[in-house]
Design goal:
Arc Repressor Mutant, subunit A; Tetracycline Repressor, domain 2; 69% helix; 2 domains
Length: 204
């Protein structure tokens, strides 16, 4: 998670985390559908307007690392060293997310998500948004030099690697297996370099 700088930013981050932690505690104790926004705000000792200044919806309270994960994926593309390969940093970010989401204590959260149509729908839209943000970053990258379709396909596969790994008995191994396929497909889309004029036969 990005560490905020400055007193005001740290205070905002602490309030946001307090709201998210309170919401998760209430959701797991009583069920997602049984807890209202006003109850979360009251238990976190904040105004409802304060809650909504940090989270756009009730569903967003469950996915409090949503924005952070999206930014990390984009930065894996934009912040890497010049001419460095694209896929290794993305693989590392997916591994980190999978470790977070399969850590001890995460299972009840995912059972709650899987049992809620609203949360499943939100997760799907979140993954699509992450894929679009990642695709845009890859398309703007001068090293990747791929077309729009290849960039969007790569982004979808990277995001789907997480979903497959989360449900796997071997999450880490699943990420590596999927990325081997991604790497092969990405290499196959590399633009061909134009043939050298010296290699062309002389004109008749």
């Amino acid at each position: 998670m990005t560490v905020p700088t400055g007193r005001r930013e740290r205070k905002k981050a602490a309030t946001r985390q307090k709201i998210a932690d309170t919401a998760m505690r209430l959701f797991l104790a009583r069920g997602y559908e049984a807890v209202g926004i006003r109850e979360v705000a009251a238990d976190a000792d904040v105004a409802v307007t304060t809650l909504f200044s940090h989270f756009a919806s009730k569903e967003a309270l469950v996915f409090e690392r949503d924005e952070d994960f999206e930014q990390r994926l984009v930065r894996a593309v934009t912040d890497r060293a010049p001419e460095a390969p694209l896929l290794p940093p993305l693989r590392r970010e997916i591994h980190a997310l999978v470790r977070h989401c399969t850590a001890e204590g995460a299972a009840p959260v995912w059972r709650m998500i899987d049992a809620s149509p609203a949360l499943r729908k939100y997760e799907e839209s979140m993954r699509l948004r992450h894929a679009e943000a990642l695709a845009a970053a890859v398309a703007a990258d001068s090293v990747s030099a791929r077309g729009e379709t290849a960039c969007r396909a790569l982004a979808r596969f990277v995001i789907d690697a997480f979903a497959l790994a989360r449900e796997s008995a071997d999450p880490e191994g699943t990420v590596d297996e999927v990325f081997r396929m991604i790497e092969a497909a990405w290499a196959a889309t590399e633009p061909r370099k134009p043939a050298s004029s010296e290699a062309r036969p002389p004109a008749a």
